[in-house]
Specification:
The protein has 11 helices and 2 strands. The chain is mainly alpha-helical.
Amino acid sequence: MMLLSFCIFTLSFTAVLSMVIPCHPPKNFSDITPFQLTLIAPSTRACNISASFTDECRTAEQAAPFINKAFDDYAISSVGEKAAILSLMLFETGGLKFDRNHFPAPGRPGQGTRNLMTFPFVHQYALDTPSTHSRARALAGTNATDPSITNDTMNDVRDLVLGDELSFASAMWFYKASGPERVGCMANRSLADGLIAQTRQGWEDYITGCIFTIVTEDRASVWEKTISVLSP
């Protein structure tokens, strides 16, 4: 999608004068813009104050800086990888409307962030993050499957990583650094290659072989729209 690097202002006095005045370009021309987010998911234009989970909702304008920072922090630069990860986040959160599992009510304990990770991954993420490591360890130790961990404790650990900077980065961490070996989806390099190539099969392999869920047409439609909007 072309980005205009200048603005044209027309001023009228007794004659028409045209001035070309530079705009402020994005910091990085590969950044995802709020406008692109709204093209993919129109509901991200605003948060409905009368809707459920209003405190969890984020608009495209609010989310974009955190999403771009996370892609930079985890060195994810290809359109194909970004589209797969972003479409996952948009699908899992109903267009950035929530960051905790609520369905069926009251929701699965400990599941959350902007890619709706289950508790074992939330726990690992909290332990892997320097700012939350000590508190996560004090709350739940180092074994996420310890039967003594209560539902309330799972939720307390999840709350540690629900600040926007961490919550919006969780899908990128999962892709690059989750799992026992701390390599995420990179354990299967061909999976990443498929995403970079922007093929339907590559995306399906990501959903089934990394996210460990099933391919549905609802998911596919969000990915297809994301690829379309982000592709140059």
